[in-house]
Structures are given as structure tokens and as C-alpha cells.
Amino acid sequence: MRNIILLAANTVKVTFRKKSNYIVYFVLPVLGLVLSMGMHSDIGTRLLTIGIINMDGGVISNDIIDTLGNMEDFEVVNTESASIDNLLLDDKLSCAMIFPEDYTENIIGGNPGKIEIVTVKGKDTTIWLENYIKMYTENIYMLARASGGQKEVFDRLYEGYRGQALRLETARVDDQAKDRSITLTSLGFLIMFVMIGTGNTAEIILRDKRNRTYYRICSAPVKPREYVLSNAVTNIVIVLVQICASIVMMRWVFKINTYVADWQMVVVLGCFGLVAIGLGMVIVAFARSSYEAGAASTLVITPTCMLGGCFWSAEFMPDIMQKISYIIPQRWALDAVKTLQKGAAFNDIALNLGVLLAFAAVFFAIAAYRFSITEDAGRFI
Amino acid sequence: MKMVKIVELTKKYGDVIAVDNISLEIDVGEIFGLLGPNGAGKSTTINMITGLLSMDKGSIWVMGKDARNSTNEIKRNIGIVPQDVGIYEDLTSLENVMFFASLYGLRGSELKKRAIEALEFTGLTEHINNFPRKFSGGMKRRLNIACAIAHRPKLIIMDEPTVGIDAQSRKHILQSVQMLNEMGSTIIYTSHYMEEVEEICTRVAIMDYGKIIAEGTQKELMSIITDQNSVWVSISGEADRIDKTELMEIPGVISVEIDDNTVKINNSNNINNLDRIIHYFTEKDIPIKNIENKTPDLETVFLTLTGRKLRD
Ligand SMILES: Nc1ncnc2c1ncn2[C@@H]1O[C@H](COP(=O)(O)OP(=O)(O)O)[C@@H](O)[C@H]1O
Ligand SMILES: [Mg+2]
To answer: Do B159 and B178 share a domain, yes or no?
Structure first.
């Protein structure tokens, strides 16, 4: 234990003795991240295009559609259900709303059906829409109950309700539009940046190997797993600082809303950071030179981010790829954030966090084993 | 108890046999020299003593402990000066020494005191708060040594500590090796400079291609070649006109080596051939500046045993 602390403290000291490393480890990653997120996040005033599939055609669904269409921020277009996926992927539509058959009739009958909302950009795009629909539907459901199933009574109540509710909601939309909101793409960036940031992890070990200080440390009574652990500790600290700095910048400087409590975001990204650090260490453990290590991390980061759904939603990938995506840690991290965005409780992502921690544990074990059997301590270039 | 005992040790890298079935015993209090050209297997042997490399065959005991399963106990009592300088350029001299010494269990004021002593010992007192980035090669090597001795190890292993440094630093290092030994440490000193080994070592093993080809005190090694003597003929130029094979034809000549303007001829003691050697030069009209009769050195021992120079 003492060795781990000594080694970790020394690594931090050596790394940040160079002032330029503050820029390399904190300023650049955080700025890069926040800027690219800024570019990919939705500015509230942007027009959201909603594709509509109306299988109902009753008065209530038509009213909802009209209301949305009359709002400044939305444009509604009628769509065929067959073409939704393509339109969504091509970014022609921000989301699609599907009204089930007999929606109006059922809701008056006291048995409301569910309006389905489809998006590839993450729940953030539709979260307001969903809340609005939910509230609207609930209110109408109450009217329906109040009218006891009598059509005339309902119609009268509904007529009165229409006017008020919409004014209320419009006011809320204006409020929200002032903030930017995180999109799936920018969320993918966040995950990818955590991964790239941990490339620096690798650099710390590589530096020790190049300078022969790794060899020197190994000649002292230090176990290889203590060395690996000390590096893990150092890097966790660095990654956590990076994540917290990013979130602070997002929240307070760029005013990007993630729709997830900050501490929950730190926990999810922190767990993912552990995985990324572990992966970085595995790469260093197997690489025979700095060059090899660099090449390997590039080879690993981009494809796994693609497969894991950082650039597009994993749900839109072919079946087989979706199955594969479950062995990619990014997928689990993204799913966790998306689940939280839907308003789920923190307990609901326990599985995701468990899987991420398991990935990290496996990577650390492989790295530690490899470090303990590798005999090139003196030869690394 | 022996400080180090090596029995039938072998290490291979793929097809390369880096250490080939060697056995050695190093007594407490010795300065033991491991002499051999580059690639002989010196560093590989040392890395097995310190437990950094696994052994393919054989065994090593350090202070009576089996190197296979008490690595950390052994490492704690060893101070290693690696062949490649292993220090942090972004830490001051003092911070470097304190960090490495702390890994050996030193702490608090004791740690600082010992670190300062080690730097004093290696002549770096004035540079205690300077960064090694600006140090000369010799100063870096001295710092490398300071990092190895602050915890006062019973066994100090120095792997070619004088490669590529100025004469003054080298002299300083050789002196400190002897002082460390007088202060009670056993020392293993590897080098491919025979002058150094001759100057400081109490006992020497000569390694080549992974094997120990000779071992003993200097006297014992010289006795391998007591039936030989060495004649050094200095000329003022035209060394290219000398044909080694012609010289070798002279009865009694064992080997010939031309080093700038000095022709080094190894002779059998039993045959008087000095007149014929001189004749060779006068006949070719090559003026002789000086002739010396040299007593054999380790270089000659190596040459005799392997037919090659130590520093090819
Ligand atoms: N990690 C390694 N992988 C492959 N070959 C090695 C390795 N380390 C040393 N060797 C080879 O083993 C032999 C002995 O090397 P070494 O012990 O470094 O010699 P020395 O220290 O005497 O110069 C050399 O032929 C060298 O090329
Ligand atoms: Mg060597």
C-alpha cells in the first residue's frame, strides 16, 4: 500500500512539474470536449421537424398536431411509417410521433393509448415533447373521467380546456429554448473524449519505460501489480478532474443541459473512465514501443466508439452489430446516460455500472499479469 | 555464507543463448568484476540476480536466499546502478534520490539525511536542488549511483557505470566504488574496460558469448598466460605497410595487433625472437621509435582465450 501511494504521488509530481502538462491533461481535453459538444448540441431556437404518422385522425390527435405546428420551434410533416428510419438517420426529421388507431375514441372512453415518439438523437430532443404529451393526455383523461363517458359533456369540457392549456405550454417552451441541450452525438463525443483523455494514461507508463525509470522502479522492492495499481490511482484522479471540469464548463459556461444530475454523470463517466484507463494499460502492457502503443490505441478507439453507438444510436444498427455492441463498454455507458435522461432512478443503471466495473477489473488484471511476466523492462524504446 | 551464489545458470532469448550455464560465487566484501565485450551476457546475469528476469535453468542465492521466491527480500538489500541511467529529469537531484530510497523503506528525516549523504558521496552537493536535465553525462551517472546507495545496501551492483563519460567523472566513480567497499558493501562491477576492472576489482570473471571463460584474482588470470610476454613496438607511421601474417610467421609469435602506431606482439616466453622482430621492421625500412616489454594484462588474457579484442 505504501508503495502504491509513493509511486502515485511521484507520478503526479513528475507529470505536473512540467507546467505544459496542465494544458495537455486538463485545458485541451476539456476545451476540445466542450467545444465539440457545443457544435453538436441543439441550440434551443433550432427548428425541430416532427414526422407525424396519424393512424387515428380524431379530434384530439389533430388538435395536438395543430398545436405543435403552430409553435415557433416545431414544424410538423406527415410521414409514411416505412420511411421514418431513413428520414431520422438522414436528419430530415428530428423525431417522429405515431398516434395509434382510435386514439381519440379510446381516450374519451377512459382508456388512453400510447403515443410513440421515435428519435435517433437521444431523449433530450423529445423529452419536452414527451412531457407535454403526457401532461396533455393526463388532463384529457381527467376530462374524460369527469364527463363519465358522455360525448357532449366531454366536448364542452374539452372546448374550455383547449384554450388555456396551450397558452401555458407555449410559455414553457420559450423558457427551455434558451438553453442548449445535449444530443446523442455530443454524448458520444463526451464518451470518446474520456477515452482519448486516457491515452495520456498510457503516456505516463510509456514515459517511465522510455526514461528507464520503470526498469529502475522494478529493481526496487516493488511488485509489478503495485506499479499498475499506482498508475490506475493517478489516472483515476486525473480523469475525475477532467470529467468534473468538463461538466462545470458545460453547465456554467456553455449552458449545455445534459438532463442528468451532475453527480450521476460523474459516476457513470468515472466508471467508464476506469474501463478506458484499464484498456490503455493493456495496450501499454503489450506494446513493445511508444509507436506501437499509439497506433494500437487509435486502432481501438474509433471502431469501438462506432460499434458502441457513439456516433449513431446503437438501436439503428443491424441485429448482429447490436449484439456485438454489448461487448463494447461504450454501449453500456451510453445506455446508462440515456436511461438516466429518461428520468429513471439511479438504481436502474446498476447493471450498466456493474458491467463497466467488470470490464475495468478484467483489463487491470490482464495488464497486471502481463506486467509481471514481461521481461523487457530494460529494452523498451 | 556467500553474498551471491550462482549455479549452472542459463537464459535464452529465442535462439540467442544470452547466459550459458554459468556458475559463480561472490564472497562478502569483494569487489567482483564481470568483464566482457558488449552482448556477453553481463546485464542479463545481473537482471537475474535482481529478480527482474526469470531463469531458464539453474539457480541463484543471494545472502542465502533463493532468488526464485524471495525477490523483494533480496531487492531490499541490493542497490542497483543500471546500465541505462534511470532518473527523472523533472525532479531535482535530491527528489530523485529521496524517491528511490523511499521505495526501500526509508522515510521521514532519516530519508532526507541519507539522500543528502548519498549526494555528498557522489560529489553532487552543489547540485542538490538542480534538475538533471542540465547535467553532463558524468553527473547523471553519479546521480544514478546516488539513487542506488542512499539505502545503504549490502550488495551494490554497478552495470557499466562509466560508459560514455569524461575522465574526471570516471576517476571519481572508481574511487567511490572503493570507498563504498571499504564502508562494508560487497560490489559487483561489470565493464568492458579492462583497465577499470584491473584497477579496482579483487576478483574477476571474464564473460564471452554467455559463458565464463576465466575466473579468479588478477594474479590467477595472469598465470594463464605466464608463458607469454608482450612486445610493443612504437613506430612513427606507415602502420599500413605492416603485414600481420608475415609477423605471425616469426617463430614464437602468438598474436599481433596494430593499435594506431603501436604494434602489439604476443610472444611465447620460450623462444627468443626479439632480433627477428626488429629485423622485420628494419628490413621494411620502418623506423622504430621505441620498444617495450609489457607484462600481460587482462586484455591479453581475453585476446589469448578468445582470439578477439575485448572492444571489437
Ligand atoms: N530482451 C531481450 N530480447 C532478446 N535478446 C536479448 C534481450 N536482452 C539481451 N538480449 C541478447 O542477449 C545477449 C546478452 O545481452 P546482455 O546481457 O545485454 O549483454 P551485456 O550486458 O554483456 O552487453 C545479447 O546477444 C543481446 O542481444
Ligand atoms: Mg549490458
So the answer is: yes
A-chain CB neighbours of B104 within 8 Å are: 220-221
CB contact under 8 A, A222 and B54: no
**Quick one: which of A179, A184, A187 has its CA closest to A45?**
A179
Q: Do A35 and A75 sit in the same domain of this protein?
A: no
Give the residue numbers spanning the domain of A80. Answer: 48-162
Q: Are B243 and B296 in contact (CB under 8 A)?
A: no
Does B90 lie at the interface with A, CB-CB under 8 angstroms?
A: yes
With respect to residue B311, please indicate whether it lies within any of the assigned structural domains: no
Using DSSP's 3-state secondary structure scheme, residue A125 falls into: helix
Complex ipTM value: 0.79
Specify whether A319 is located in the same domain as A364: yes
Residue B111 near chain A (CB below 8 Å): no
A266-303 pLDDT per residue, tens: 999 999 999 999 998 898 888 877 788 888 888 888 88
Task: Kindly state the helix (H) or strand (E) to which residue A141 belongs, with its residue range.
Answer: helix A123-146
Number of structural domains (chain B) is 2
* Cα B8 to ligand 1 centroid, rounded to whole Å: 18
Residue B22 has pLDDT above 50, yes or no: yes
Residue A7, CA distances (Å) to A280, A379, B70, B102 in order? 18, 22, 22, 10
Query: Cβ contacts (< 8 Å) between B87 and chain A: which residues?
Result: 211, 213, 216
Mean pLDDT of B102-117: 94
Domain boundary among B186, B221, B256: B221
Q: Which residues line ligand 1 (CB under 6 A)?
A: A 376, 379; B 13, 16, 18, 36, 38-44
Of B99, B129, B149, which to mutate for an interface test with A (greatest number of A Cβ within 10 Å)?
A: B99
Q: Please give the span between the terminal C-alpha atoms of chain B, in angstroms, as a whole number.
A: 38
Q: What is residue B242's three-state secondary structure?
A: coil
Domain count, chain A: 2
A231-260 pLDDT per residue, tens: 888 988 888 888 888 888 877 777 777 778
B312 assigned to some structural domain: no
Residue A167 clears pLDDT 70, i.e. is over it = no
Which domain range does residue B43 map to? 2-221
Between the CA of B164 and the centroid of ligand 2 the distance, in Å, is 13
**C-alpha closest to that of B153 among B145, B162, B161:** B145
For B95, the closest chain A residue by CA position comes to A10
Percent of chain A past pLDDT 70, that is, above it, reads 85
Q: What is the CATH number of the domain that holds B62?
A: 3.40.50.300
Alpha carbon of B40 to ligand 1 centroid (Å): 8
Q: How far is the CA of B45 from the centre of ligand 1 (A)?
A: 10
User: What's this model's pTM, rounded to 2 decimal places?
Assistant: 0.72
Taking the Cβ of residue B156 and every Cβ of chain A, the question of whether any pair is shorter than 8 Å is answered with no
User: Using an 8 Å Cβ cutoff, are B77 and B63 in contact?
Assistant: yes
Q: Under a CB-based contact definition with an 8 Å cutoff, are residues A329 and A308 in contact?
A: yes
Query: Is A312 domain-assigned?
Result: yes
Cβ <8 Å between B75 and A219: yes
Q: Which of A129, A162, A195 is the last residue of a domain?
A: A162
Contacts across the A-B interface (CB distance below 8 Å): 71
